[in-house]
Specification:
Layout (H helix, E strand, L loop, with lengths): L1 H19 L7 E5 L9 H13 L7 H5 L2 H4 L2 H5 L3 H8 E5 L5 E6 L4 H46 L3 H30 L2 E4 L3
Antiparallel strand pairs: 1-3, 1-4, 2-3
Helix pairs in contact: 7-8
């Protein structure tokens, strides 16, 4: 009985030591790219965002991510002949099981460098999308101001053709452009980092 208890205890301890000594998985990050914009399929959207994340120039985000203070001080970046090309060659972007999520991994440099690069790329991506949202909000305000301006013009206008044109412009802004802009803002707000690299 004692022998069985000691053997069971030994097996448990050895198993826990083995689990504790298992190598940590390589750093990875998960990005939710949101739903596709109007007129694009989910596949087209995923391909576009994958290319935007991994293409070195001119559309890629590496140029901005490379200038992240945390990335600039990395030994691998300082040693790279062309940092953007080196980043692009070593980044892997693969779709997750959930169709609107992408897994980002980096296969060069130390573990700490990989995590720093992935997180800098995600910060750059999120900042870029926030700038797009801010731009669209400013555009929405311009549309609202334009509607108010056209309403004032209608009050003082005598020409029936001009009044009809102003009303047509207001209708276009309120029924088409403004809802489309609000929908795009809502879509961009869904983009989120699900998991940062560790």
């Amino acid at each position: 009985m004692r022998f069985r208890l000691a053997a069971a205890l030994l097996v448990t301890v050895l198993a826990s030591i083995n689990v504790l000594s298992a190598p940590a998985p390589d750093p990875f990050a998960i990005l939710d790219i949101g739903l596709p914009p109007k007129g694009k399929t989910a596949e087209e959207h995923r391909k576009y965002e994958t290319d935007r994340l991994s293409h070195p120039r001119p559309r890629g985000l590496f140029l901005l991510a490379r200038n992240d203070p945390e990335v600039r001080k990395l030994p691998s970046i300082r040693l790279a002949k062309d940092p953007c090309e080196w980043l692009a060659q070593n980044l892997r972007v693969t779709p997750e099981a959930e169709r609107k999520r992408l897994r980002l991994t980096f296969r060069a440099g130390s573990r700490a460098e990989q995590a720093a690069i992935l997180n800098a790329l995600l910060r750059t991506y999120v900042h870029w999308e926030k700038d797009r949202i801010d731009f669209l909000k400013r555009g929405l305000k311009v549309h609202e101001d334009c509607c108010r301006d056209l309403e004032k013009r209608i009050e003082s206008e005598k020409d029936a053709r001009m009044i009809a044109k102003y009303r047509e412009g207001i209708n276009d802004l309120r029924s088409t452009r403004m809802p489309a802009t609000r929908a795009e803002i809502a879509r961009l707000k869904e983009i989120a980092v699900i998991q940062w690299a560790k």
